[in-house]
Amino acid sequence: EPFKSHMKSFTTKIVDMMKKERFFASQGGHIILAQIENEYGYYQQAYGAGGKAYAMWAGSMALAQNTGVPWIMCQQYDVPDHVINTCNSFYCDQFKPNLPTQPKIWTENWPGWFQTFGESNPHRPPEDVAFSVARFFGKGGSVQNYYVYHGGTNFDRTAGGPFITTSYDYDAPIDEYGLKRFPKWAHLKELHKSIKLCEHSLLFGNSTLLSLGPQQEADVYTDHSGGCVAFLANIDSEKDKVVTFRNRQYDLPAWSVSILPDCKNVVFNTAKVRSQTLMVDMVPETLQASKPDQWSIFTERIGIWDKNDFVRNEFVDHINTTKDSTDYLWHTTSFDVDRNYPASGNHPILNIGSKGHAVHAFLNNMLIGSAYGNGSESSFSVQMPINLKAGKNEIALLSMTVGLKSAGPYYEWVGAGLTSVNISGMQNGTMDLSSNNWAYKIGLEGEHYRLFKPDQGNNQRWRPQSEPPKHQPLTWYKVNVDVPQGDDPVGLDMQSMGKGLVWLNGNAIGRYWPRTSPTDDRCTPSCDYRGKFSPNKCRAGCGKPTQRWYHVPRSWFHPSGNTLVVFEEQGGDPTKITFSRRVATSVCSFVSENYPSIDLESWDKSISDENPLAAKVQLSCPKGKNISSIKFASFGDPSGTCRSYQQGSCHHPDSLSVVEKACLNINSCTVSLSDEGFGEDPCPGVTKTLAIEADCS
């Protein structure tokens, strides 16, 4: 009840703000839908009857706001009659709203997936995203929304999960840095242009489902004006098929949809990507210190850096203690070892158990090891061999969170932090330290003094250094840096560091952690788009850091006098930190003769299709750059992917000269697969493909 009271107050406040500005469509504004709650249906069952009652209350409370626009609830099946339930998924073509009179709405189509530290990176192929959208509208969909269309950055400590990376690029059509991701962006643009050509029949026509084979079908829309639209689908995840529709034959690749705005001409097929691929690289620049002596450092004290905050003879929950004001919570204790230690044959082991998310362990002021959970399991246990000394020994454990859990039943009770500490292998067995007197300190000394803020640049705690220490734990680094040249987006390369936090001019770039992902068979040189996608399919970066570069908005830089502050937990080499510019360096294209060749901008349903245009390759470098060289060109049956194309058994010997003539030293070019330069057919009876890779500079 207290939560509901605050939730209602907050919802009312937001709605009243919108009403005051006359933002709702009912007031002549632009807001056409409003949403209450999010994906509660995933977790409702865990709360029994109370879960359903809450969902119904939330919907009714929203309706009572009288916005004059529909309210929706995403991934929620128990809703009041006048609230529209919607779908969030990779596929929503089979979804149906609760009532047949309600529109079929897809609120979250996931074009990728989030990254977690220590894991390889998921990628969803553009062919599959387009397939899911075409299927949705073919099956009567009304509204489709991408989550997310523009990737972003979890600046500061805003990443959730836990263990979600600072990057929230999401393999989105527009990437984290604001650059269009080709071919995904362009392929989806062509998809929506094609659906737009079907607009009248989709809005005003009646639909019919026709079977074209065991796993092939046509969704056909006809309207009173004679308009006809068809979505021809092959949902076989392995085999290409030739189908007959209205006395014509159509090639349907496996797991694809062809769109026919006139029930005759194919303007788009989801599996045939006509768009170029734009290859983007992180081009490094030296991290120029303005002066050689501009490095300064501050070393954290290990353990309690001032008076302790409290002492307990037990472990406390990390999150309830820090209230998320910091990632860090110190635990310190001491114990005595017999003066006759070590006895022969003793090999003591420090055993630590934790609910998560990470810990650095120090014994007698020395870092002896670190341990972490992961995105699948936050909790962990670790065993660290240790060397004790006779007399008093001191243990300091720095417990850390790596983002807070943001969903799930009863997730407020999951918590984090240490649960047990003992030392096994002692002369008298195991020494349990869990109920020792533990002194606690919330946060770091550098955080307390806000050393990352520009106004603390002259704080006496900073010690100037001509050469900063390397591989030293719990160290703050400060250096004056220059602005990277040009206007390309900027990333900070933190591959040389361990784990920590970083700021530019007081702006929190976020957590960095170039944690290496495992090497496994989920990463493949090329991705097979066919079949249902899941986040474990089509991964990349196995055996490499999950996140090496960290987005730094150019607006955070000053013309001069920029200060970079790094807090390093474990130890790294700060002299190897570099800025990198995100630069498009090359373009590729792979187009076959049987790809749709209709110009979506100028296509008219009344045109004749007796002499269809040949397919063509279109290449374009970013503004201000030209195609400087052709790295690969083959007209025949080439194979591979961008930067790894290979000639096949069929190859036209003039492929390179034709492409160079059309494309060299200009910003963009078009090469038709019927170009007269290709002359004689190099392999009659074979469907030819033109593959090109070109550099941009």
Automatic annotation (TrEMBL):
One of its GO terms (cellular component) is apoplast. Coiled coil: none annotated. Pfam families: BetaGal_gal-bd, GHD, Glyco_hydro_35, SUEL_Lectin. It catalyses: Hydrolysis of terminal non-reducing beta-D-galactose residues in beta-D-galactosides. The keyword Cell membrane does not apply. Residues 611-697 form the SUEL-type lectin domain. Gene3D superfamilies: 2.60.120.740, Galactose-binding domain-like, Glycosidases. Its EC number is 3.2.1.23. The keyword Signal applies. SUPFAM superfamilies: (Trans)glycosidases, Galactose-binding domain-like. Belongs to the glycosyl hydrolase 35 family. This is beta-galactosidase. It comes from Aegilops tauschii subsp. strangulata (Goatgrass).
